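User: We ran a pulldown and think these components assemble together. Before we commit to crystallization trials, I'd like a predicted model of the whole complex to look at. Sequences follow.
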Amino acid sequence: DSGVTQTPKHLITATGQRVTLRCSPRSGDLSVYWYQQSLDQGLQFLIQYYNGEERAKGNILERFSAQQFPDLHSELNLSSLELGDSALYFCASTSGGALENEQFFGPGTRLTVL
Amino acid sequence: AQSVAQPEDQVNVAEGNPLTVKCTYSVSGNPYLFWYVQYPNRGLQFLLKYITGDNLVKGSYGFEAEFNKSQTSFHLKKPSALVSDSALYFCAVRDSSASKIIFGSGTRLSIRP
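Assistant: Here's a predicted model for the assembly, 227 residues in total across the polymer chains.
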């Protein structure tokens, strides 16, 4: 168990809808990362937050947004969902924002868009 | 721009034999290199990393990796494979001058009894 929790485990929704994925980092970790894992795209970095502030942005679509709250949990919002958004979404946390820190991954949320 | 390549989609090894999972990278600054493993229906788990220092890095579960600057490689190795090592392995790189981490496409390691 990495200490990172994600809810829900599974999410099934329809095209055009909006969903929110939640992540709680390990106790004491300030950085949260979001990733999308799909069969054709592999593991794609979406966005990083450090202590409430956006730190780095990857291949995140404009339909997607994220935030990190004062208690350090983070939410990833996906809107106007398309079939291609079906994927596993992982969050990971590290103790600081340093580039050399290893990341601890949550179990993921499997999103299915029908 | 930074990139990382795992040239093999799948590696098959007999139990007890040595294994190698290949990774090559491209960065403009100094590389920070990582290996992660993903078991079915689980998140990624950290195995080992190279930041600086000794080119041979030892990690979890008996794995090690060798940083080769001239060949821009960071291959994952284990002297004697176990069936329980069967999983998906990801190499990742961070450029010291960039803020993003890039993951390779993953290599599925299959160890036959």
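The radius of gyration of chain A is 13 Å. That may be worth checking against your pulldown data before setting up trials.

User: Thanks, that helps.
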